[in-house]
Design a protein that fits this description.
Length: about 700
Amino acid sequence: MLSEYREVFLEELEEQLQLMDEEILKLEREEDSSRIVQALFRAAHTLKGSSAAMGFDIMKQLTHEMEQLLDLVRSGKRTVTGVLIDRLFQALDHLKLLKLDIVDGGGGTGIDISACVRQLQSFANGTEDAEAAETVELPETEEITGYAETDAAKAKPVLALNYRLKASECLDQGRQVNWISVRISSSCPIKGARAFVIQSSLAELGEVLYTQPDLEELEEQAEGATEILYLHAGDRGQEELEAFTLALMDVEAVLVEAVSSEEIELVQPSTVQTAVKTAGPEEGSGQTSGKAKSQTIRVSVERLEHLMNLVGELVIDQTRIHQVERTQRRRFTDDSVEELGHISDHLSRIIGDLQESVMKTRMLPIEQLFNRFPRMIRDLSRDLGKEIELVIEGKDTELDRTLIEEIADPLIHLIRNAVDHGIEDPGVRTANGKPAKGTLTIRAAHEDNQVVIYVEDDGAGIHAEKIRASAIAKGVISPEEASYLSEMESVDLIFSPGFSTAAVVSEVSGRGVGMDIVKSHIEKLNGLIEIHTTVGKGTTFKIKLPLTLAIIEGLLVKLAAQTFIIPMSNISEIVRVTREDIVTVRGQSVILLRNQVIPVAWIHEYFQLPKSSAAKQNISLVIVGSAEKRLALVVDELIGNQEIVIKSLGSYIGKVTGIAGGTILGDGSVALIMEIAGIIAKMGGKTVS
């Protein structure tokens, strides 16, 4: 197996699987299916060739059966039916399983595809869907296993003298000289690199004498399919060369033709020299060198992570240099201190630009996550007997690639709950004067230097009274505690561990676990989740996430003699109050702020630090929030805000509730970063009504 191409193969496999997923969904919805069937055929054909080249025979067999079936559909011998769609989706799911097996180090041999293959063959033979309706004849398409007789395939360049001499010498030695026309698939993201790989593979069967265009000048991401012409000398026949080349990854079509005597007929050197001179320096030997170079490259995630860590170290050092500059400025007034200030300011700008650039290289459109959902909604709605229209907005919103991976599971759970519990059955909706088809909207947007994701349904909404009753019955809260809860606080109970309102446990959701895990997962990402619901009209889950997990904006505060950091994303406001403004209600210290009662917490107690002995009249409060809950933290001193590089506490210390990590300050000391969600969970918090 060509192990050095494994990563490239897996990346391209993922792209092809995503393409097939989208196209099968389109095939189910659209009437004019000729273009979609052709796209699916090409994807299956590409996977067949690439998996064969990598030695994954199971995947090659399955894609071959898909290709055969799709060929019958595009030729009009089979029609697009619901059964066909199901069979294609089943095959796609098996391909995904094969991919996972390959990622885990297997070759797909642990996945049984026999039943899937039989079903594909049964449909292809007409024994499964014998009563298929007539379908519109699809347009004639060229045979993919060989080039169509186009002008592009027939055209051959005029060889320069050195190439003609070499070809003539090979023929004299009894070797076969052939033109090999290769079409690289339009879906190949690295056409230049692929052309080099094809050349190297052909060189194993002989010698590549010439290529057109020059592979050095080939655009990596040229639009559409790319055609390469190789002049090959060896001892293999035309059929063998064609079969070998066609099996290579991303090869869409191949045509092998013997070199004619006219093409290598030797001409006088003076004639060739004149031709080259007339063509000019840019067009010697019929090739051009004026093509634009590739503008993109693939970079491994590990390198980006390492680069981000280095930038983080620079941010720390830049903060320390700024601290030294301020210290020196207080002590001295000579020109060297002024120069140090200029250097510090310049470094701040450069490091800021570098940080922004590195951040952008890690950002990906959230589209690659959202593209998973149409298929999932299609399957869920069929299983539950519901009609659901999915609306996706803001696909181009960019987010750190790590966050995209981490937020996937919580989003999937929210979507499943919306489909299972939120949107009613068609009969119920019709009886309530709603359209039978429910609507689920998923959208993303940038707001206040954060990414906000909405999961919104037009279903039944969440009944606060039912939530309270269920929480009491399950022992989540006592009847007395329930009597003090507002509507929003009651709705917020769905995030309690073990809470569920499902009358029947289903395959989709309602197992009594999940929403608490969703909330905790989002809070671990320094995010917030909020619920907005109206009975009878629907529910919206709003998720706020930072753009990245690596560097955050934080507020530095003093507790006793130690410095702590509160993430700015968790801070709603900062206020100063007098001691008389803090009152006690049922044993809880609270303040009244704009008609809102907010609990007050002496955070010193949580971290077991001594309270300030100074009897200050004014007290600084930092109002922090998690979801709808608010808590006023008492701090001794407000230092200021700055960018913070989050460092893990390491496996030796492990996870500490209320601490998200640490960072190095400008003076070299270590400051701990508060985890607000954990602190609120331990010290309490009031829902803002």
